[in-house]
Amino acid sequence: MKNNILQWAKDKGILDNATPMSQFIKTLEETSELGTAIQNNNLAEIQDAIGDIYVTICIQAELNGLDIDTCIESAYEVISKRSGKMINGTFVKDE
Fold first, then answer.
1. Domain limits of the chain?
2. Which of the ends of the chain has fewer CB neighbours closer than 10 A, N or C?
3. Rounded to the nearest 10 degrees, how much is the dihedral formed by the CA atoms of 75, 76, 80, 85?
4. For residue range 33-51, what is the model confidence (pLDDT) as tens digits?
């Protein structure tokens, strides 16, 4: 799927014209849409927003010369060793 997303971004001129900051702003917009969908308990919009966020971060990784899968693997290596506890529905890592 990542390759399809990146090909779409190339075809639309995003990879040639976007900047990391403009793509960051797009991710924030999509994240805001996710918040609204959650607040409205709209599962279809939640699904759409999560997909859109993934698309924007795939493009962000590419714009920065990174591979999204490598980024995810790197993050997992850190979080898999993390300890912490749940506080009010949020995981809070130990210092």
1. 2-93
2. C
3. 60
4. 999 999 999 999 999 999 9
